[in-house]
Design a protein that fits this description.
Length: 134
């Protein structure tokens, strides 16, 4: 590898990446007066996350985690559509996670479903394949 390059362990494609300044994203969570409820802050946004065994009125941790994945999918589809010159009127990504009650920290199965409005079937496949290749 050339000077300034390094092997990035998480890079499944095995590509060498040039050294760059990493981005650090931070979320802070704290307890509240309600047992099983956390107040969270990301940048200037505040939101409540409840434990499944707690009040379970607000979003649950697993739902916040899955929302991050599906929202990222929508944003990447938009970006790829712009890069490829594909007309994308709308995109919806649905993610479903299967977990066993005896091991709730482990996903047995994750399923992603994509619904795209605007592109042809071939263009939609290209967008989804680009997402899958990330």
């Amino acid at each position: 590898m050339g000077e300034g390059a390094f092997w990035q362990r998480g890079d499944l494609a095995g590509r060498a990446a040039m050294a760059e300044t990493p981005r650090i994203d931070t979320v802070r969570s704290r307890t509240t007066a309600v047992r099983g409820r956390a107040l969270n802050q990301a940048r200037h946004h505040h939101f409540v996350v409840d434990a499944q065994t707690g009040p379970a009125e607000a979003l649950l941790p697993v739902e916040v985690f899955l929302a991050g994945i599906s929202a990222c999918g929508v944003h990447l589809l938009e970006r790829f559509a712009d890069e490829f010159g594909i007309r994308l009127q709308g995109a919806e990504v649905t993610i479903s996670a299967t977990r066993l009650p005896s091991a709730p920290q482990r996903f047995e199965k994750l399923e992603l479903a994509f619904a795209l409005a605007g592109p042809s079937e071939a263009e939609a496949r290209r967008l989804v394949e680009a997402y899958q290749g990330r």
